[in-house]
Amino acid sequence: MADNLHTRYIRAANTWHAHRAGCTTCQQGASCPTGAPLFERFVHLQDAYLNSRRAT
Q1: CB 38 within 8 A of CB 15
Q2: How many other CB atoms sit within 10 Å of the CB of residue 35?
Q3: Which residues fall within 8 angstroms of residue 56, CB to CB, at 6 or more apart?
Q4: 1 contacts 27 by C-beta, under 8 angstroms
């Protein structure tokens, strides 16, 4: 499970960073309607992955 979770976490991070690179709203520290859910997914998966690593 951790490998699949890691893959999803990295994919979400890449998606968020790619969006942020082209979105001036998200670059300013605010979240646009598209960026907000991307960032939330990234954070959620990052937390889940880090918690799974602590459990091992």
Answers
A1: yes
A2: 17
A3: 2
A4: no
30/21 Cα distance (integer angstroms): 13
What does the block give as tokens for 39?
């960032």
Tokens of 15: 């998606």
What would the pLDDT profile of 3-52 be if each residue is shown by its tens digit? Answer: 699 999 999 999 999 999 999 999 998 999 999 999 999 999 999 999 98
Nearest residue to 35 via CA among 5, 50, 6, 43: 43
User: Would you state the structure tokens that stand for residue 18, as one six-digit string?
Assistant: 């790619």
d(CA 47, CA 29): 20
Alpha-carbon dihedral angle through residues 41, 42, 46, 48, given to the nearest 10 degrees: 10
